Amino acid sequence: MNIVEVKHLKVWDANTDKVIIHNSSFQVKQGSCLAIVGESGSGKSVTCRSIMRLNKPWIRLSGTILFKGEDLNQLSEQEMRRRRGKNLCMILQNGMSAFDPSCVIGVHIRETLQTHFNWNNRESERKIISAMESVMLKNPQEILNQYPHQLSGGMLQRIMIALALVLEPDLIIADEPTTALDTISQYEVVEQLIRLRERMGCSMLFISHDLGVVQKIADEVMVMKDGAIVESGDIRSVFSKPEHTYTQYLVTTRLELSNHFRKLMQEGT
Ligand SMILES: Nc1ncnc2c1ncn2[C@@H]1O[C@H](COP(=O)(O)OP(=O)(O)OP(=O)(O)O)[C@@H](O)[C@H]1O
């Protein structure tokens, strides 16, 4: 069964008439992780934001986006807001942009949880603290009293993962969740994302430039170039026998690069 079915998605900028995504169709299977790879500007983030309905107002789309059989484009903004967080959860590249800079983390989390659950403050806090401990965040109580700018990028990513653990969404969209992090934090965040999937059995859409990470976390991969899907399929077959020239280029350059990097890391430890 597919949790997400995107059919003939076309996205364009109404200000310039520039087409950003050309007639793209793909599915995310229930419980599976689909990675989207491709060069900068190929349309990975716009595709994900189209599912979340978080594109800027001048970015228009046509086609169908079914989530659990329901056409997301037919929902009112209020209905869509209810789906965000509880059903569809997004983990962004930059943790700073995900949290309200004007309030401490605890307030942001409490408000998010109260939008979706009938929990009182103490119950919300108990659940988030337990989730934060499970993603190896030390002194969670202290963290809840801090502002986003007082925390590192890796900590903010882990807080987002902890929040996802509490929200238990059906689909997690992770848009370059490790790009802004140092190597150690990247490794830890990937490990936590893998554990999150194992524990919740949720489906995932995972965008990354790092083919090594993609190989570790994803079941299927879709390769985008200039707003079009050029190749897709099971991760092992795509990476071992890439058919499209662009995928061949990506696999030879990027996979070699990350393998070399991993080897260096292992030698260093
Ligand atoms: N708000 C916007 N207004 C107009 N055009 C946009 C907007 N956001 C994205 N685009 C255009 O859409 C295209 C795809 O952008 P997108 O951010 O999806 O690429 P990407 O593959 O995610 O790249 P990256 O890996 O750098 O994040 C780009 O050409 C970009 O200029």
TrEMBL record:
Taxonomy, superkingdom: Bacteria
SUPFAM superfamilies: P-loop containing nucleoside triphosphate hydrolases (SSF52540)
GO molecular function (one): ATP hydrolysis activity
Gene3D superfamilies: P-loop containing nucleotide triphosphate hydrolases
ABC transporter domain segment(s): 6-251
Annotated localization: Cell membrane
UniProt KW keywords: ATP-binding, Cell membrane, Membrane, Nucleotide-binding, Transport
SMART domains from the UniProt entry: AAA
Bilayer topology annotation: Peripheral membrane protein
Any Gene Ontology CC annotation: plasma membrane
NCBIfam families for the chain: opine_ATP_CntD, opine_ATP_CntF
Family: Belongs to the ABC transporter superfamily.
Record protein name field: ABC transporter ATP-binding protein
Organism, as annotated: Paenibacillus mangrovi
